[in-house]
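Backbone-to-sequence.
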């Protein structure tokens, strides 16, 4: 079918006829896709709205009166306020969006929730490019120390780029950030008797500035339970530069900002089974980096070490998004079975549209590079699994207390040997040893070396 799209820029009206494969198109889907372009909640489109993204201010959309479906010869009207020199790129974005939504699968509440989760991660990643926050990070990070450690490393077999990332990871975990299962009580300054008794939204100015999504509320049994301690889960990486504590969300968020501050190309990686980490481009390849674990390039650690049953993993850069799940699993068919939130066809379509809309003229990440990466990801799972794992990929989770890790069943088995391994390994890593070396040393000690 053919659909007419009109957009009004000040008093000029431009229009374009787009050929879509479908005979009709769910208007809901159209609106959801549009929300990924304009960054507004789908439900917000029906009133008077005003959103800003990439310089495009959209202040009205009118869908055809026959609500629910777009059909042949329908017209969709947009009101945009943009600079004259932005009109062409707006037109290009709209066209790529319209192309991307052809032959979709149904959109429903589940796919809407799916998109909202991704939107949240996109918003997080965008903050890492905020110049004010990057400057703040540069004032706080001991850049010279990290650079000189990277430059002076004796191991010349690895590249300087890799040594910089490793030095940043090490500093971040050993000197900068602190893991918090439960916060310290404001009454007695201990945390061993803290109980989480609920949560609330951000209320104080500090919580709002820090973009706290939720504020966890704790009671201390040591103090009788009357005193409440609040633990805001900040999403503003600038606030995290000061608070320097949290769980994986805070760690990955702040680490990405620090990596950007060191001029690294970084991606924020969101895993739908409740973990986040980063990827840094090292010598042209995206390398897994988990700041909570001081782990570098051990992508199979979640599946093989922690025993995670991964589903969806998305890597979000400054102007790209890619489904990188296959970098993190050797059990792709099983993983695919668990991916039941949305159809794979819908997901591919959605991601490629979103990816296209994120690209801009400054993009260093060309379509050819994307294709190359997708090829690598495909071959990663089509290659036979030899069962070989890097040492760091076989250990359970080290961040968090043993009880917390066990409660999440991420300890890689939970038996005594695993716990003993973990304790020794963690101590060695905290003393500054590289995780691979620490794992080898742990094995040596467990086999009867010095304890
Ligand atoms: Zn207390």
């Amino acid at each position: 079918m053919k659909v007419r799209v009109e957009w009004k820029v000040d008093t000029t009206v431009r229009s374009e006829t787009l050929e879509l494969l479908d005979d009709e198109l769910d208007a809901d889907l159209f609106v959801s896709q549009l929300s990924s372009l304009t960054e507004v909640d789908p439900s917000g489109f029906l009133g008077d709205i005003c959103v800003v993204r990439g310089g495009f201010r959209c202040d009205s959309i009118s869908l055809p009166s026959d609500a629910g479906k777009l059909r042949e010869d329908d017209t969709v009207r947009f009101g945009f306020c943009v600079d004259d020199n932005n009109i062409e790129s707006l037109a290009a974005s709209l066209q790529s969006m319209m192309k991307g939504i052809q032959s979709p699968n149904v959109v429903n509440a589940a796919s809407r929730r799916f998109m909202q989760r991704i939107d949240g991660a996109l918003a997080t990643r965008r903050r890492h490019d905020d110049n004010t926050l990057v400057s703040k990070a540069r004032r706080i990070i001991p850049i010279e120390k990290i650079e000189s450690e990277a430059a002076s490393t004796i191991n010349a077999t690895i590249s300087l780029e890799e040594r910089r990332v490793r030095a940043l990871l090490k500093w971040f975990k050993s000197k900068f950030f602190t893991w918090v299962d439960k916060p310290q009580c404001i009454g007695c300054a201990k945390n061993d008797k803290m109980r989480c008794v609920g949560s609330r939204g951000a209320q104080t100015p500090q919580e709002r500035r820090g973009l706290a999504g939720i504020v966890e509320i704790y009671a201390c049994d040591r103090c009788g339970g009357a005193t409440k301690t609040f633990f805001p889960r900040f999403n503003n990486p600038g606030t995290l530069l000061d608070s320097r504590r949290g769980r994986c969300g805070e760690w990955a968020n702040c680490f990405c900002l620090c990596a950007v501050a060191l001029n690294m190309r970084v991606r924020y990686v969101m895993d739908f089974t409740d973990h986040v980490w980063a990827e840094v481009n090292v010598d042209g390849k995206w390398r897994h980096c988990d700041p909570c674990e001081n782990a570098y390039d051990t992508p199979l650690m979640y599946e093989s070490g922690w025993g995670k049953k991964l589903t969806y993993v998305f890597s979000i850069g400054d102007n790209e998004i890619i489904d990188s799940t296959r970098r993190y699993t050797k059990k792709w068919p099983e993983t695919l079975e668990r991916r039941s939130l949305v159809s794979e066809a819908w997901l591919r379509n959605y991601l490629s549209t979103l990816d296209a809309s994120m690209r801009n003229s400054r993009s260093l990440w060309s379509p050819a590079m994307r294709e190359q990466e997708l090829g690598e990801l495909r071959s990663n799972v089509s290659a036979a699994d030899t069962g070989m794992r890097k040492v760091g990929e076989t250990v359970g989770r080290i961040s968090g207390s043993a009880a917390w890790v066990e409660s999440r069943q991420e300890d890689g088995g939970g038996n005594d040997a695993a716990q003993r391994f973990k304790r020794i390994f963690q101590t060695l890593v905290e003393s500054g040893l590289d995780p691979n070396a620490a794992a080898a040393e742990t094995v040596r000690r467990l086999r009867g070396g010095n304890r």
